[in-house]
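Deviations from the work plan: none for this task. Representative record:
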Amino acid sequence: MATSSIKRDSANLEAWQQICRAEPVLKDIRNAIDVLPGMTPDLILTSGPPMKWEDYAGGQREAIIGGAQFEGLAQNRETAIAGLDAGDIRIDGCHDHGCVGSLAGIYTASMPVLLIENETAGNLGFCNMYEGTNPRRLNYGVYDQGVHDRLTYVNTRVSPVIAEAVRLSGGIPLKPIIRRALHMGDELHSRSTAAALIFTRELFPYLIEIAEKDKQAVHEAVTALTEDHYFFLRLSMAAAKATADAAHHVEGSSMVTAMAFNCRGFAIRVSGLGDQWFTGPHATVEAQLFDGHTQEEITWMGGESTITETIGLGGFAQAAAFPLQRYQGGSAQAMIDRNMELYNITLGENPDYQIPALDYRGSPTGIDIFKVIDTKVLPAMDIGIPGRDGGQIGAGIVRAPMECFTKAREAYIQRYGAF
Amino acid sequence: MATSSIKRDSANLEAWQQICRAEPVLKDIRNAIDVLPGMTPDLILTSGPPMKWEDYAGGQREAIIGGAQFEGLAQNRETAIAGLDAGDIRIDGCHDHGCVGSLAGIYTASMPVLLIENETAGNLGFCNMYEGTNPRRLNYGVYDQGVHDRLTYVNTRVSPVIAEAVRLSGGIPLKPIIRRALHMGDELHSRSTAAALIFTRELFPYLIEIAEKDKQAVHEAVTALTEDHYFFLRLSMAAAKATADAAHHVEGSSMVTAMAFNCRGFAIRVSGLGDQWFTGPHATVEAQLFDGHTQEEITWMGGESTITETIGLGGFAQAAAFPLQRYQGGSAQAMIDRNMELYNITLGENPDYQIPALDYRGSPTGIDIFKVIDTKVLPAMDIGIPGRDGGQIGAGIVRAPMECFTKAREAYIQRYGAF
C-alpha cells in the first residue's frame, strides 16, 4: 500500500487532534493488579522497550531486583535474582500495560496507581506514585530498608487519603490544572510545583471530610503533595499517556506517540507503525549535578516520563518554567531558544497548553519523524539524572538520537511506500 | 546643613538595606479601631496625600461617603455628606495610620485589617481585606446593598476564619511566600495567584482544626483566598508597607519610601524628607479594559498598592509575571524591556526577590529620586483601572509623573544643600 503526502498529512492531523482534544481526568487510585491491563502477581514492569532479563544492567537491573523483593516475590536479593533467572518472576515494559515509568519505572502488583481516563477517547492511562523527596528511590535503582519503608509509607498512608479524596470528588480534570500550571512556572516534567498546589486546592473540600476521621493522615498526604516539585509529575505522566495513546494507531500517521528508554538505549513509537519500538543509542545529555557528584557518575536506568514531551509538555514547554535554570542549568534565553526550535519538528501548537513567555503561543505539539529528519532538530527532554550507585544526582536536558527517527522512516516507507 | 554625595550614598545604602532585610510576618487580623495608630470611630482613611473633604471628587468621594454609611456613621448618603460637611465624620490618609489603601482605600473603625510585623525593624504595617471578585467594590467607588453585603461577608465570615488560622499558626512569614511566588508567575501587585495558593497551603493545618467546628466557613474562606488573582495583594501591600516604613526617615536618604495617589494627582515620599508628600499630576496610563468599556471611562480615585513597586515588586518585577499580558496588555518582551529599564533608577537588586526570566537577577529595588531625574526613566506600576461610574473596568501600567521627583529634589537640596 502506498500513501500520498496528502494522506500522511491527513493522518497526522487526526493524530495531532487526538492529542489536543484529550480530556484526562483523574478518576481513582487503585492497585496495579486490579487495573493495569495484563498485570499479574508475578510480573514486574519496567521502563523502555522490554528486553530479556539478562540484558538489564546497572541501576535498572537493581530496581527490578528491588521490585521483586518489595512485592514479596523473593525474600532477599539472591532469591530475587534466582527467580528472575528462572523466569518465575517475569518482566515486561510499562507502555504495553497502559502505564509509564519514571526512571527505572518499577511497577509491582500491589502498588497503587493513578487511574486517568481520557474522556474524549474513552481510553485509560496509569502511573504509580512519587516515592518522596529522598534521592534514594526504587525508581532510581536503589532498594534497601529506607526505600522499602518510604514506598510502604506512600502506598499505605499517602495514597489511600488521596484516593478517597479523588473518589469523593467524582474525578479531578487534569487539563485545567496543567493549563494553569504552565502560567505558573511549571513545564509539568521536571517542575510541577504549581500544579501540585492547584491539585491540592481542588482536593481541599474532600480532604476536610477525610480529616474528620484521620487528621494526621490528611496532614501527611498534603505534605507529600506539596513538599517538593515532583508529586504531580506522576499525574502529568499518566495524563500524557492517556493523551498519547488516543493518538496511537492512526493509520498513515508519522507522529511520535511515545519516547522511552531503558538501560541500553533510547526508543520511539510512531502512531502509524504499531507497537514496534525504533531504537537508538542513549540520548545525549546536558546535566547539572547536585553538589558532590561528577559527570562520570551519570548512568542510564530507563525512563518514560518523556511521555510529557510527546504531548507538548516538559522540554517542549520549557519556556514556561524558567526556574528550572537553577535545577538543570542554562539561561532563560537558552530555554526560549530551545523551545522555539522545537516548533520546527512538530505538527502544530497546542491550543490549551500555552506559554506566557512566548506571548501565549501554544506549545509545540506532536513530533513528526519526517520533520525531525528534515530539520535535524532532535526532541529535547527535561529529565532527572541517576548516578551509577543509585539515587538521583542531578537533572538536565537530553536529546533523542537521530537513529530512532531514521529507523522509523525506513519502517514507514516499507509499510506505506515512498512518496 | 550640607551633605556630600558620599553621605547620601551611605544614607541610601542604609535605607535600601532596611528594605532588603525586612522580614514581614502576618501576625493577626484585627479590627482597624484596635490596632491602627490614631484610628478613631469617626475617622475614615482614604488613599493618597490627605485633603480637605471638599477637595475629594468622583469615585474617591463616593467611596468615602459609602464608607461612612457602611460604618453606620450615617444612615444614608445625604446624612453621610452632611456629616462630612460638618466635620463630624473625619478623613485622613491611610499612610499616616500605618496602612495602605487599595484604590480609594477606605478604612473604617470596624473593618478587619491584616497585621504584619517587620521582625527585623519591629515596626508594623496593615492592610484591609480584599472585597472579592465582583468588580463593583467600595474601594472602586461603589456603595450599594451588594457592596455592603459583600463587605459584611468578608468581614464577618471570611476574615474570622483566616484570623483564627493565623493565630493558631503563631504567624505566617510572608517573605518566603513572596519569594516563591515570584518564581510562579506573580509580581505580587496585579497578580498574586501563586502566593495565595502557597499561603492557603501554609494555613492548611490550622484550617483543618477550624473545620472541626465550622466546615462550611472554612470552605468559604478557602474559596475567597483562591478564587481569583487578588486576595494575597492585601498581604503583599501590608508587607510592603511594613518594609518601606522601616526605610523611612533615614537622614540624608533620597530613596522613595511611598508612592500614592488620590483623585487629584500622584505623590511620593522620600526617606530623608520626612512625611511631606511631593505631588504631581496624575500618572500616565497604558490600560487594557474589560469588554464593553472605553478609555473615556478611565478615572482616578486614589491608590496606594504602588507600595509594592516601592520595595521592588509589582511593575518592578513584572518580568516574573508574563501572564499579566493577557490582563493588562503588552508582550513578554515589552515586560522584560520595561523591567530592565527600572534598574537605572534603583539603588540595588533585591537579594531575595529574584526574577527567573532575567536569569534570577534580583528585582530593581529602592527608587532614588536623583536617578529618576538623571535618567528620565519614570517608575512603572501595575494597577487596576477604575471607571467613572465606579467599579473596576480594566488594568494597566502607569508611570509616575516627573514633577514629584523634581519637587522632591528641590526639597532635598533645600534641606541638605547642593553637591
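Chain A has a mean pLDDT of 96.
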